[in-house]
Amino acid sequence: MVKKNTGPLSPEAKLRVSRNAISHGISSRLPVVNAFESQEVWDYHLNGVLESLKPESYLEVFLAERIAIILWRLDRVVYHETQLIGFRSEGVQDKVIADAHMMQKHANMPIEQQPLGEVMVHHWIDRILPEGDDLDRIKKYEAHLHRLWVQTLHEFEALQTRRQGGDAPLARLDVSGTRE
Q1: What gap in Å lies between CA 121 and CA 134, rounded to an integer?
Q2: How far apart are CA 115 and CA 117, in angstroms?
């Protein structure tokens, strides 16, 4: 008679096995975009989230990984916004210098006496935030990911509470949102 392998029995062994898809890449849900993200940074991020949340059951690990993915995507939104601002602000320094020379030439004001801070603010004020559609897309995507993060974290915490013998209500009130 052949003894059937029932898999890992201890919580530590179950946690290790639950990460096989990540370490082997089989059926992996890794959100790394190879063109500009690093697998090593993702691994560090994922391990940090798992270490912080300390999941024990399969479902807890699944939700903790989901939380890591959502946070990773939130960081991607910030990166995108930063890139847009950087792109829009290219050449601002040259424009400030050109304005300073223009003021020197037409207003007879030496560069040393010019209010360069005001000139700089004038050029930066329109470039510090992405425009129209870009800003709306960033705000919507960030709000969507934040809601997903809060909901997933609530589910994760409810699972942990139930596992530890506590009561975790199924219904929760989400008070985040926008007033329109």
Answers
A1: 22
A2: 5
pLDDT one-digit tens code per residue, 106-156: 666 665 665 655 655 665 666 666 677 888 888 898 999 999 999 999 999
CA-to-CA distance for 162 and 167, rounded, in angstroms?
Answer: 6
- Amino acid (1-letter code) at residue 59: L
CA distances (Å), origin 61, targets 48, 64, 88, 140, 170: 13, 5, 41, 28, 19
pTM over 0.70, yes/no: no
Of the candidates 77, 81, 61, 74, which has an alpha carbon nearest to the alpha carbon of residue 8? 61
- In which residue are the tokens 């207003």 written? 107
Question: In degrees rounded to 5, what are phi and psi of residue 139?
Answer: -60, -45
